[in-house]
Amino acid sequence: MVASQETLDKLEDIGLNMYERKIYAALLGRGVSTAGELSEMTNVPRSRAYDVLESLAEKGFVVIKSSKPMEYVSIPPNEAIENIKKQHKQELQDKLNKLEGFKSSEAVQELEELYDQGVELVEPSEMSGSLKGSHQINQHMGTMFQKAESAIKIATTEEGLNDLVENHADLLKEAKADGVNVQILAPVTDSNRSSFSNAKEFAEVRHLQETGEFKIPNGRFAIVDDDMTMSMTHDEVHSTQDTAFWTRSDHMSKETMEPVFDMLWHHSEDPENNKPERPEK
What we know:
This protein is α+β, with helices and mostly antiparallel strands. The protein has helices at 5-13, 18-30, 35-42, 46-59, 77-103, 106-120, 134-147, 158-177, 193-199, 250-266, and strands at 32-34, 62-64, 71-74, 128-132, 151-155, 181-186, 204-207, 220-224, 228-232, 243-247. Strand 5, helix 8 (158-177) and strand 6 (181-186) form a beta-alpha-beta unit. The protein is elongated and about 80 Å long. Residues 132-272 form the Transcription regulator TrmB C-terminal domain. Residues 11-78 form the Transcription regulator TrmB N-terminal domain.
């Protein structure tokens, strides 16, 4: 039996290169084999076969026998997967430890001082830029939430509420614990009811619904402390094409986006008792 191309492609997804995929699949079919035999079966150059098998052994896919000629034993796929998972976890932990050590070092303090020095030379309105891709957008939004001192105001979509809870629930909980007032506006439906329940732990959540001439804006935005704003595209684009505009302009926040948020808030209602929130007369 020969492994299908689809299966070989899956092995690539978990980090095996072309030669490693071929040799591991061939070795699975034999159980035990030499580098020469595997080289002939897979058309991998013999000079490379030894290095490939050594690499597979390091990754936990192969065991090397102490024999002459040297033989190799295949590790069952499920065990091999667990082996490589352990390696990735250890590598990640090592990197996190290095980052934590660097974060508390004098070097970071020096870099922070350089940043503060540079910011003093720039007008707040010039601190702006565009972001592309949901990963970059979520990363930057998380940074905004971490810097919040008094208020976070978020207007999002039905699916956006699910994304917000999935990607930022922990940061928003921390913000609330630090005394930050968190407000969220979103259409609450059966598809995001669970996210609404979770969001209530760290925010006041209001339901947006089109009524009469009132139309819900097709987009998402977040305001932090009246001086940072991020506005994002709607849900109909692919995550890699998702775009956002970020600015530290207090004029944009206070004069443009805050009034929009307040207007939406006054047209919202409590999802649990359906009592509309209206402006005070």
